[in-house]
């Protein structure tokens, strides 16, 4: 019996590895396609508005499908949904590589390409819920924050790989080769899931803090509050990711090399903070408190950045880095907290709820910031980002109260 337990205990790290590889695969495509935007505009002869539509399509697909995939993960199981997501996304990119790449005088329609990218995102979005649910199933609560943080760190890692490989393949061999290469990667990881992943039944003892409840998290405001808090904390992350380069170029005239180093440091530091906060909150059982502190730090840094946005460059860069780091640091413990609050039985649904709010914001922010900038300058942009981040604080407080009240009723 001890040998069997030891084997199962070790196997959970294999599950985590498979989840990380699946998440990296998704991120390679999700980030790699937008990074080729300049090359895509030239080869496909897109206008700027057409290019913006195409580059936002995968995010839109993920946003509209996340909750549905979460529910299906709870019903069908992690392994099946992961295979559907990886295989389906691979099939979508295979179709793009065959029919929707420039070939001589034949230029594909931006609408056709956008529709298939929406489909790729809608199917591939299942990977987020399924890989997270697998981690929640195989790890106990005292390790979940650390394990989920490692899984979440796979996203910036995959994004970094995609940002290097996609442009390299496109520049050397064309878009057909880039899309085909990604399709092959998806199919290879699908086979890894098929042969390497075992299915584990979720027992009542593993259900987490909400194990007394048989109510779907979709009907519980305590869980929605955590999802909306994640939505609020995505504002500083995406604002820095998408418009920090424009801000630092226009307002402080920094070179692209310097800006790239700053943003690389923010991404690298944010990934490290995900793992550190995951490990520490497992040890001290304080995920909710740390999430609230992250909200306060992001809010204060964002608001102050707005107030001094035209002043000393060193101060501005420091505040921008803090805002971005806080926006990146919350993911591991945030996804863990919403899954634990819902109960492992409903982990897929809860992770889908969080993913839906996060990707909706990720899709909307690139359109919102130029509007705010036109009305209120960079000062207004960063102050609004800070205020929005602070909204996570009362949402998390309210979520704790609802959970505690429910636990009292069940006691």
TrEMBL record:
Residues 15-404 form the Major facilitator superfamily (MFS) profile domain. It is found in: Cell membrane. SUPFAM superfamilies: MFS general substrate transporter. Keywords: Membrane, Transmembrane, Transmembrane helix, Transport. The chain crosses the membrane at residues 12-33, 53-73, 80-101, 107-127, 148-169, 175-195, 226-248, 254-277, 289-308, 314-334, 346-369, 375-397. It is a multi-pass membrane protein. The keyword Ribosomal protein does not apply. Gene3D superfamilies: MFS general substrate transporter like domains (1.20.1250.20). Pfam families: MFS_1 (PF07690). This is MFS transporter. The lineage of its organism: Bacteria, Bacillati, Bacillota, Bacilli, Bacillales.
